[in-house]
Amino acid sequence: MWVLVLFDLPTETRKDRQVATRFRKSLLDDGFSMFQFSIYMRFCASRENADVHTRRVKKSLPKHGKVCIMQITDKQFGMIELFHGQKEIEPEKPSQQLELF
After folding, report:
1. Which residue, 39, 54, 42, is CA-closest to 6?
2. What's the predicted TM-score (pTM) here?
3. What are the backbone dihedrals phi and psi of residue 17, each rounded to the nearest 5 degrees, phi first?
4. Residue 45 three-state SS
5. pLDDT for the residue numbered 10
6. How far from 98 is each of 14, 44, 45, CA to CA, in Å?
7. Is 8 annotated as a binding residue?
């Protein structure tokens, strides 16, 4: 499973920028990587693991702005067509993660 977090947060004031930065850092601390500036993604080994990370994102939601959390299968993610300019690029392969309990 892949968990994608898409967001559009206000950045007009210094306080808004701090809140947006704090939200992005919370995603990075939870193992997400930046796909684009306002799109972060994380590979999860199972739906249950994806649900855990989805709940963590929900706990750190800012008061203002729009946030979308989407879960897609690895097969669906593999069908993404990515382009850098007009050149097609390969999607990122899931990293091997070791989870300790």
Report:
1. 39
2. 0.81
3. -65, -40
4. coil
5. 94
6. 38, 11, 10
7. yes
Structure tokens at 20: 């947006």
Map out the domains of the chain with their CATH numbers. Answer: 2-89 (3.30.70.240)
What's the DSSP call for residue 94?
Answer: P
Question: What's the sign of the alpha-carbon dihedral 45, 31, 97, 84?
Answer: positive
- Distance, in Å, from the CA atom of 32 to the CA atom of 2, rounded to the nearest integer, reads 10
50: nearest Cα among 41, 62, 60, 59: 41
pLDDT tens per residue across all 101 residues of the chain: 999 999 999 999 999 999 999 999 999 999 999 999 999 999 999 999 999 999 999 999 999 999 999 999 989 998 988 888 877 877 666 666 666 65
